[in-house]
Design goal:
There is one protein chain. By secondary structure, the protein is mainly alpha-helical. It is 41% helix and 4% strand. The longest helix is centred in the first third of the chain and has 12 residues. The chain starts with 16 loop residues before the first helix and ends in a 7-residue tail after the last helix. The chain binds a DNA duplex (13 and 13 nucleotides) through helix 2, helix 3 and strand 2.
Length: 113
DNA sequence: ATAATGACGTCGG
DNA sequence: TCCGACGCCATTA
């Protein structure tokens, strides 16, 4: 199909395509499940866990950012209370103490629900 | 183009 | 369990 517009860019020209891909993956995580930064990075196979964090810190507000956390189950720094509230609302499995997610049960393998 | 940054991960103590 | 050091990698200044 021919494009009438001289600049057929993405709907979000401020967001790099890789970053957009990260946001897309995060949006795929079902409620009650989570992925680690490393899991998202490995899922994409195009960047490292650190970069996933950077993307979410900048553009994560448009997606379910709370469903991405550290490898030890700790919620994103600076948003712990907010994330924990979301886990409670989505019935995400938490570990004893309720400050960390039980990755054993809540980790999403990427398969459809 | 190079240096510094950051919502990470892994290992050692 | 907690803390520090090092490695990783696209983005930003």
């Amino acid at each position: 199909m021919e494009r009438s517009h001289p600049q057929p860019r993405e709907p979000a020209p401020d967001i790099p395509e890789l970053a957009s891909a990260v946001l897309d993956v995060v949006d795929l995580i079902p409620a009650g499940k989570v992925m680690t930064y490393g899991d998202v990075a490995e899922y994409l196979g195009r960047c490292g866990p650190r970069h996933v964090g950077m993307v979410l810190s900048r553009w994560g507000g448009a997606v379910s950012w709370w469903r991405v956390l550290k490898a030890d189950g700790s919620p994103p720094p600076g948003h712990e209370a907010q994330a924990l509230a979301a886990y409670r609302a989505e019935r995400t499995p938490l570990r004893a103490g309720g400050v960390k997610v039980d990755l054993r049960l809540a980790r999403w393998d990427g398969e459809p629900v």
